[in-house]
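Render this sequence as a predicted structure.
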Amino acid sequence: SGSLKNMSNLYDVSYPTVRAKLDRLIKKIEIHSQEEDVEFVNMIKGFVIDERISLDIAKVIIEKYKKEKDV
C-alpha cells in the first residue's frame, strides 16, 4: 500500500517508470499463476489417462481447484 508517486520520489525515477515496472511485475505473476494452473490440470488429466482416477472425479477436482484460486 502506498502511492506510486511516492515510490517514484523515493527511487528518484519518473511515475511512468514505476508504473511500467509494476505492470511488468503484475504480468509476470499472472503468467506464472496461469502456468501453475495448466500444470495442475495436466497432472489431473494424466491421472485420468493412467486410470488412477475417474473422469468425473477429475472434473470435480479441477472445478474445486479453480474455485479456490478465485477466492
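Summary. The first helix runs from residue 4 to 11. The chain has three helices and no strands.
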